[in-house]
Amino acid sequence: QNGSIRGRRQPNILVTGTPGTGKTTTSSALAEATQLRHICVGDLVKEKNLHDGWDSEFECYLINEDLVCDELEDLMEGGGNIVDYHGCDFFPERWFDRVVVLQTDNSVLYDRLSRRGYTGSKLTNNIECEIFQVLLQEAKESYPEDIVVALKSDTIEDITRNVESLTDWVRSWHPAS
Ligand code: ADP
Ligand code: MN
User: 59: domain CATH number?
Assistant: First the structure.
């Protein structure tokens, strides 16, 4: 019997971090290695219109957190998801078995975001977000400390190593009894 009594049979993982730290690259490689489902929240928000319009100051959609959580609830209850988003405080705490915060050296991140076309305040806001470890703080405030892990994501080798260690973690995960 699955569901309310036994709980999920596969873990849910949240991959978070400042834009450009490698969430989508890492999540898709991890999904391929584990056969878990990669949910890119930014894409989902656009596809299903889970937003309240475009924020011209921050140049991004104003995500509607309630709509996103409603949309994901059934999938999350079933388990086996990798959720990829640059925020983490509005998801229910009970959804996740592991919260991964990717971190990148400032100068490396600056180059990545510039290459992505970020300029001006959009670029500096994101660099400051990384310098002040905003996502790591947010994760620590929102989830139990023992499920939050910060991983360095400066190089391709870091991605390979992170995907390997997370794959090992998924394989050894067992539902709580
Ligand atoms: P995010 O989803 O966190 O915004 P992406 O996965 O889209 O980040 O990565 C942004 C860009 O940086 C991509 O071009 C990607 O190939 C590159 N990148 C991300 N992480 C790394 C890394 N650890 N080493 C080298 N390049 C990376
Ligand atoms: Mn992404």
Answer: 3.40.50.300
- Residue from 25, 26, 60, 104 to probe ligand 1 pocket by mutation (most atoms less than 8 Å from CB): 25
Q: Residue 136 and residue 16: Cα distance in Å, rounded?
A: 9
Domain that holds residue 97: 13-161
- Tell me which residue has tokens 């670029």: 123
Phi, psi dihedral angles at 175 (to 5 degrees):
-60, 140
Which atom of ligand 1 lies nearest, measured to the CA of 112?
A: 12
Answer whether 21 contacts ligand 1 (Cβ < 6 A).
Answer: yes
Exposure of 109 by Cβ count < 10 A (0-12 exposed, 13-18 middle, 19+ buried)? buried
ipTM of the complex: 0.99
Answer yes or no: is 167 within a domain. Answer: no
Number of domains comprising the chain: 1
For residue 69, pLDDT over 60 is answered with yes
